[in-house]
Amino acid sequence: MSHNKTLTFAFMDPPFESERTVTFFRLLDAALDANSHVKVFAYEGAAALSFAKQQQHGNAIHGHDTEQEDHPLTKTWIASLQNKARKKALSFEWINCGLCVDERGVNDTIPGCHRGGPADLWRYASESFNTLTIGTR
């Protein structure tokens, strides 16, 4: 691993429920732009962000079919961030809280996202330069 700083993020919001999710992804992107390694612990509803079975949908109100609507999926954003980190030779680790995953039935995740528990957040925070927790309220 390089001498770049590592930042840990703990996030709790589910996909598509608030503007905090977009802000969270922008913070991750900015951390990669600053050449920081990134560690994410997805807790509570955020455990569904990397759910592999998310599907786009149309918008009848706007008269758009699925392709025209091109609704962004959180799993795609995560994959883009993983790819950006890889291109910059930075680490990008993502762990979903296993209890939270089980409660929501979102066990099937995209590649590179793993199951863990609160001890992983402790480990991430202990190994990082700084930790940002973004709660639900």
TrEMBL record:
SUPFAM superfamilies: DsrEFH-like. InterPro entries: DsrEFH-like (IPR027396), Sulphur_relay_DsrE/F-like (IPR003787). It comes from the Bacteria. It holds the Pfam family DsrE. This is FeS-binding protein.
